[in-house]
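Dear support,

I submitted the protein below through the web form. The confirmation email said the job was done, but the results page showed an empty box. After a refresh the structure appeared. I'm attaching both so you can tell me whether what I see now is the final result or a partial one.
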Amino acid sequence: MNAAHLHLLLNHVPILASGFALFFLLIAGIGRSGRHLAASGEILLLFALVTGIAAYLTGEPAEDVVEGVPGVRASLIETHEQRALPAAAITAIAGGLAVAALLARARRRQPAPALARMVAVAALLSFLSLSYAGHAGGLIHHPEAGGGPPVTGETRGSE
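What the results page shows now:
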């Protein structure tokens, strides 16, 4: 396993974790007994933060692996990098808010409604920014994700 493989294994996890966190937080906000769902969403945001840090830290080594691969454009890697840093910062804020809410729960109190809303909004922003960065990363080696033709060793329709 090389750095690019590790990065690819890790980078999907924070996107999915923040998406599920958002789902749990929204469902918790609708129902009357959503305390456990909300706590689960907050824990998932922390998981998104930890795995996001790991994905971010493996990005540069992954770049070193794919730089010379045919069809990989440096401009796409740069776009991915430019989107990854704000996504990491937003996810860190979401994780911090989730910790505040979890600490309030640990003291056997419900988090203030404003804090609960802030956690949900942060989860949404985290999911959107991570997805935006992830899409740019996918385009590095999957041009079909952006509407372009897939990269293959053969040309179709030239018979």
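Response: this is the final, complete result; the empty box was a page-load delay. The chain has a mean pLDDT of 88.
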